[in-house]
Amino acid sequence: MFRARLALGIACRSQNQVYWSSSTRHMARSYQEAVEALNEFQTNASELEKQRQTGGRDLTKSIPAMRRFLERAEITQEKLRKLRVIHIAGSKGKGSTAAMTEALLRSQGYKTGLFTSPHLIEVRERIRINGKPLSREDFAASFWQLHGLLSRNQDPNMQWPTYFRTTCLLSFLAFEQHEVDVAILEVGIGGLYDSTNVVDHPAVCGIAHLGLEHTAILGNTLTEIATQKAGIMKPQVPVYTVPQQEEAMTTLQHCAKRAHVSKLLLAEPVQIVPRSPGETAMNLGIAGAHQAVNAGLALHLVREWLGKASEPSAVAGDMAQVSSSLSSLLPWERLALESCRWPGRTQILRRGTATYYIDGAHTIDSCTAAASWLRSVLPRTKSQAQRKFTLLFNVTGDRCPSDLLRPFVDLVPFDRAIFCPNLCTSSKANSTDQTNHTVSMAAQLRAPRACMAAFKGLAYLKLATDIKEKHIAADTLSCSILHADSISDALTAAVASDAELATLHAGMLPVKPAEPAVEPAAKRAKNEDEGLDSDGSVEHHIMITGSLHLVGGALSLLGCDVE
User: Fold this and answer.
1) Which contacts (CB < 8 Å, 24+ apart) does range 458-465 have?
2) pTM for this prediction
3) Cα–Cα distances in Å, from 26 out to 65, 144, 166, 397?
4) pLDDT in tens, 415-459
5) How many CB atoms sit inside 10 A of residue 318's CB?
6) Which residues contact residue 82 at a Cβ distance below 8 angstroms, ignoring those fewer than 6 apart?
7) How large is the C-alpha radius of gyration of the chain?
8) CA-CA-CA-CA torsion for 432, 437, 441, 446, nearest 10 degrees?
């Protein structure tokens, strides 16, 4: 571990401050060591708990601190202005909006830079050039360049930047080095005090759907959260948003006036269903009816950036809105939106006859949307004996499992529900890229237990309602509720036969060496040819959701390439 090398003079810590010695020039400039060093700047779980108990960090110091890091990294506002930034905030859909915005501009020949978070498999996914994650070599080069700049321009009063600040600084350096034409920045948390908000002159700003999330940091009301998100608004910079709840929209309008933006416009959702003769239905590359909202926002952010902003077509309340009808879409716009892909969001993977439905939903609104999407794509033709619906779920942070699970329990008749910590294997060691010091092991192990109890309560409540209202003759749950020690064990259980599950006791999966979640290639190919799954008869349909960290671990175990 990197920590063990501190005594060797690579770095020294004093009173929580980091000073890098000249001996760092001898460190191997590899990607692996860059990631190990970067992981040192995650705020550990015990420190985060102290902050929570004392009322949290003083967020008002965040932007001044980030500005000082910009200076030390020799990143000027003039350099940032040349990136012609598109800045996107929101509670749900900001990542998908950013991905579609990037795809639209790339389709027109612009060299794009995209910064998003969190990553799923490798940290370099957070920084993309022309839609591709930064190569390991380029990521390492940018990291060690930043390392050198911050070492040379030391400030005895400032700590090394946090993990997120460091990745944000890395993105600025990488975008400059690759001479991108446009940088699309997704806000991390909130907006007003987010590290990305050091960009003083974005070309255009977007605010995706707003809802209650990160309440311990952003506030407990939509007004407070909308105020934080609106913090990215800048004087004389155009802002686009999507249909919002009245409280959120009113707040955005007040904030826009105070910020003296050039305009605030409501982007209509992209029309997917034909309304006129001659129109054909649109299939967005990122699936789900709710993605039409994000596509509409991306479309108008790009049109504004290109200097081809749409004229307002109507007024919603006292706010002008711009159309996203099928008839208004140019061929290239439609093609880009239909071909856009964004891993871990309404994603479907097939492994033999097992089908995985993957969505990193982790808010009430996004879980509701994910459950609706799942219901729309699950097969309805096979009998229950021929298929199994399985939920693989976990949460992180202070999220309420019942609130996130409710839409899945209400909408999908799961045969199995499996809950596990965000640990790839039961050895409790993730890859370097997926190391997470911000969550204690105790919290990791506690979360799936809470999810399991919440699901069981919701399932029994639904059963009681069904018995009363639908006169269903049942007195026990038809869904097997299980706990697994790791994501690997959970994936194994998801495709197990009923006979194999019957050997389990008290809802606990046996502790055993982690095996690959994917069947051996020869057996999988044979089963696929015969139309069978691992137990020789049943198709498995597995929804993986609730946490992007869970999704990332699952994608890694399922053999997905980071590219």
Assistant:
1) 458/402, 458/405, 458/406, 458/409, 459/409, 459/417, 462/409, 462/410
2) 0.86
3) 29, 11, 21, 38
4) 999 999 999 986 655 677 888 777 778 888 899 999 999 999 999
5) 8
6) 176
7) 24
8) -110
